[in-house]
Amino acid sequence: MKKKSNHFSGQIGFVLAAAGSAVGVGNLWRFPYLAAKDGGGLFLIVYLALVLTFGFTLLVSDIAIGRRTKKSAIGAYTEMHPKWKFLGILTFLVPVLIMTYYAVIGGWITRYAVVYLTGSAEAAAGDNYFSAFISSPVSPVVYALLFMGVTAVIVYKGVQGGIEAVSKWMMPVLLVLVVVVALYSLTIRHTDESGQLRTGLQGFLYYLTPHVEGLTVSRFLQILLDAMSQLFFSLSVSMGIMITYGSYVRPEVNLNKAVNQIELFDTGVALFAGAMIVPAVFVFSGTEGMSAGPSLMFVSLPKVFAAMGKAGVFVGILFFVTAIFATLTSCISVLESIVANCMEIFHTGRKKTVHVLAAIYLGASAVIALGYSAFYFEAELPNGSTGQLLDIMDYVSNSVLMPLIALLSTILIGWVKTPEFVIEEMERGGRAFHRKKVYVIMIRYIAPVMMLILFLQSTGILQ
Ligand code: PFF
Fold first, then answer.
1. pTM metric for this prediction
2. Ligand 1 centroid vs 438 CA: distance in angstroms?
3. How close is the Cα of 214 to the center of ligand 1, in Å?
4. Which atom of ligand 1 lies at the shortest distance from residue 397's CA?
5. Residue 294 pLDDT
6. Which residue's CA is the nearest one to ligand 1's atom 11?
7. Tally of domains in the chain
8. Which residues are bridge partners to 189 per DSSP?
9. Is 338 contained in some domain?
10. What distance in angstroms lies between residue 329's CA and the mean position of ligand 1's atoms?
């Protein structure tokens, strides 16, 4: 096969590219935070149960639809049912919105990697370092543009020459790095001012133990919803990305195996990320040290690294390089799915499409990067939180559109097209679709109800 063809070379290339999309900041800063907040092992059990049922259902659907139609979201849903073209357009909107801010986050991470590599780790642990950085007018923009530019160059090089080539080495290296740092985390110990000794092993046990003390039904529901929304953000489903990647998979690839491997990779990295972060934070800051979202990565962890002494600089470098790999391969997938949809709609070639989209998103990234300085404002979001430009984009794409798309697509597949549409693709070439029964029950009955509840909850309607 020629290098230029619009296909992954085979199963491994596809699995690593899809895992590259799936493994991102969601695994590194959201999963560990949720695990620590939602009862440690209890969250892990709920999450694993959902991966095998609900996550599996959405992942199988996206990838099978992509491979069967050989199209991206808009074309794929239109081909499935012309009246459902609107669902393709809604799905297309998710990466369109995410792309405006993903490179901004990638830029922040790159900046921290540079800071650690150039020996200024101590400064990064300062109290206001992060807020001073993101609210400065130049540096966040420069790093966002750099990240966006690198992403565009890789996508420009195409499916095999760009995306697959990069994912094939970055993902295995990333896996090794999280395992190494997680093992290191188990070995650390620290005595605080009050003389209390805490060890990495204790932190690890805290992470694994199912904390069910005082568990109520409503708290359990909250944990379930947290796990569910984390799950489909983490697997990059219901945003058209896996449809696009699925459309590049050759007919002879066994999708059953590929789906298992992608789930395993994504969940494995999340579990190791938890094992690396929860014990480290526990040892140096106790159980209160786990903060949410960006501040975990950019405020709490630098403090933890500083408390580790000399080793902390090295661990910090490993951590932020890991994070760059995770974010870059996700960012690539977001841009690729926009590019692929546009190529189909406008009948343009890859190069021209990438040029135009790169120009648009360099501009958009700069605007979002300025959301903490020149364009700063505070908006009240319907779910009760306040946010800046970046949070608004994130809220609309992840809390409103994604659950809505997942809900509509389960109705389309489960009831309008019937699950056979997906099952036939999974069984192509006589392959066995082992979890077929689970798939049918999930896609027709359970997933639509779960998605409706999640949609009502994350849009604030249910509060
Ligand atoms: N799946 C990625 C993560 O877990 O961090 C996040 C992500 C990737 C979101 C790609 C959106 C996206 F388009």
1. 0.94
2. 25
3. 33
4. 11
5. 82
6. 236
7. 1
8. 199
9. yes
10. 9
Residue 177's pLDDT is 95
Which residues sit with their C-beta closer than 6 Å to ligand 1? 21-22, 24-27, 95, 98, 233-234, 236, 239, 241, 330, 333-334
Write out pLDDT tens, residues 263-317: 999 999 999 999 999 999 999 988 777 777 788 889 889 999 998 889 999 999 9
423: exposed, middle or buried (C-beta count within 10 Å: 0-12, 13-18, 19+)? middle
Asked if the structure places residue 124 within a domain, the reply is: yes
In angstroms, how far is CA 447 from the centroid of its own chain? 20
Beta bridge partners of 386: 380
For position 266, which CATH number holds? Answer: 1.10.4160.10
Q: DSSP letters along 152-174, please?
A: HHHHHT-IIIIIIHHHHHHHHHH
Does residue 215 or residue 461 have the better pLDDT? 215
Burial of residue 244 (number of CB atoms within 10 Å: 0-12, 13-18, 19+):
buried
Q: Whose CA is nearest to atom 2 of ligand 1?
A: 24
- Taking the CA of residue 28 as reference, the ligand 1 atom at the shortest distance is 5
Q: Which domain holds residue 75?
A: 11-380
How far is the centre of ligand 1, averaged over its atoms, from the C-alpha of 233 (Å)?
6
**Which residue puts its alpha carbon closest to atom 8 of ligand 1?**
330
Q: Can you tell me the distance from the alpha carbon of 355 to that of 162, in angstroms, rounded to the nearest whole number?
A: 15
For the CA of 241, the closest atom of ligand 1 is 13
In a domain, 446, yes or no: no
Q: Which of 135, 137, 142 is nearest to 107 (CA)?
A: 142
420 belongs to a structural domain: no
